[in-house]
Give the backbone structure.
Amino acid sequence: MIYILAFIVLIGVIVFVHELGHFWAARSVGVGVERFSVGMPPNFIDFTKTKNGLIIDIFFFSFKNKKLSWGKVYSKTLSSFKNPSETVYTIGLLPLGGYVKMKGILDESMDSEFKGADDELESKTPLQKIWVMSAGVIMNLILTFFVFILIGNIQGDTELENNNTVIDYVVPEQAAETSGVLAGDKILSINNIEVDSWETAVENIENNPNNSVLITIDRNGKLISLTAKLGSRPNLSTGRVDQEVGTLGVSKKQIPVELNFQESIVYGYNQTKWAMTLMTSSLKMIFQGNVSRDEVGSVIMIGDMAGQAAQAGLVPFLFLMALISVNLAYINILPIPGLDGGHIALILIEVLMGRKLSVKARIRIQSFGMFILLTLMVFLILNDIIRVFF
């Protein structure tokens, strides 16, 4: 149950913030919003603001004429809320996404009826359209920033206990241990280059992935020279997972550091920048074909990760939320028809052409994009099923 609840909360927050960005941006330029939905159809709960009050409609399965069908099973009007709105606010039954249905937009619904009204998106300038379509991505990045600030406030950060080159820990079965390095040894030089700080030592090691290096150490006043065949790993510390850095298998003690509010903002900014770098390099690896099938997944993998993170604690869950929020932002900005980036790409094409594409052409482009997305979704789900059950 915790896996399901964690998944709903995780996706619900991220999607709500994304769609809220589209909603606010649309309203800011005078575009009418017909429906704001968190979750996908069928509609489960509708909230409609009228002059008579707030109408709450609940939908579920019921028998009508001896047939089981989905429809309205409950309705109540709260007369104390008399602030009419043209927008119907919806909670969808499937917690897998959400959408904002704006007036005068050709989206997944393939609604191609444009009346030329001032409150339609089609009536707005290209810059206004781009603002509306990019606002969801912007909000996801803002969410990531604030989640990392919260993490900084909750758990703080860590720093080295000291900056000398004395080794505190040696990782079993890695280059340091196999070459004879011990905890307590002090690194004096690497490849005859003197190192006077831990950062310098780490930099020299990382610059030599999979190479053999000559390490001179001080062990209880005795100078010893050792040759170590370094390993390698993705450069996760900077987020450049498309780059390999050298590893020796040693580390130093870290101590926790509390952050004040200003320091938490700096921490949030640095972590957001790291997450964006991580996503950029990850996408680069995917497009280059350097990512295996086991490293990509669908909502099944996200649900599993959300459940594990929730069991691990609040901070791991928030960290996962920040990463998936960045992931959603980057995926949505890709110039694929059906995604926000696809809409923006069509707007820019129309600007370069000096005229609008025909509705028929845009429907074909959107249909092609939806086919690509659905095919990818099916592939990822099948990939997760195979990974879990076979």
